[in-house]
């Protein structure tokens, strides 16, 4: 399915050249809620152009329903310099493994209903140092 652009063209005045900004990939880093809410979106969510609005409306259904005691504020943690490199390596390896495993479960290479495949997945996580990674995160959380 082809992506549908929701961007509206800039109307140029006669004789005016194109406006090109050099934001490139940096725009994703300024994609705060206030920034995104300020963008014009189609209101007809039944059309492909309204996909973004449909997603927004769906997420609003969950506002206020996330138990606060189950949110781990990883964005607020400051790791000590003695464990930063170790945590970064563990995190990268774990994220890559989880992503690859998700792909294998979705495509059927691994069976999510198979106890053997699931046990192998968990064993792989533990083999990558998941417990150590959680320990580092927990220590940083406790220190705050």
Overview of this protein structure:
The protein is an all-alpha fold and 144 residues long. 46% of the residues lie in helices and 0% in strands. The radius of gyration is 22 Å and the shape is extended.
Give me the secondary-structure topology:
Blueprint: H1 33-37, H2 51-60, H3 84-107, H4 115-127, H5 130-143
Helix pairs in contact: 3-5
Instruction: Characterize the biggest β-sheet.
Output: none
Average of per-residue pLDDT values = 83
Q: Tell me the Rg in angstroms.
A: 22 Å
* Helicity, as a percent range: 40-55%
Helix/sheet category: mainly alpha
How far apart the termini lie comes to 46 Å
Task: List segments where confidence is low: pLDDT < 50 over at least 5 consecutive residues.
Answer: none
Distinct helical segment count: 5
What is the strand tally? 0
Strand content: under 5%
Which outline best applies? extended
- The H/E string reads HHHHH
Oligomer: single chain
